[in-house]
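Hey, resending since the last one bounced:
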Amino acid sequence: MERPIHFIGVDISADTFNASEFTSPGEPRHGGRFENGPEGFDHLLRWFEAHGVQKESVIICIEGTGVYGERLSYFLHAMDTLW
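The C-alpha cells again:
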C-alpha cells in the first residue's frame, strides 16, 4: 500500500450508513449517505471514483456496531480484487 491519502470513516446502522472522507485529521472533505445493502455499496464505489479515492491509498474504518457492518466489510474485501 502506498502512503494513505484518503481516510474513510463509516457510521453504520441496520438500514443505512454515512461515509465521510478525510485527507487530514479532523477535516472532512466529502460525505454521503448510503443504503446498507448491495445498491448502496455500488453507490459507495461510484462515490469513491467521483472523489478520487483509490484502494492503493485509502484506509476505511467502519464503526463497530455488532453485525451492521458485516455486509459492507465482506463487500469491500471482495471488491479488493476488482476495484
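The two ends are 14 Å apart (CA to CA).

Sorry for the duplicate.
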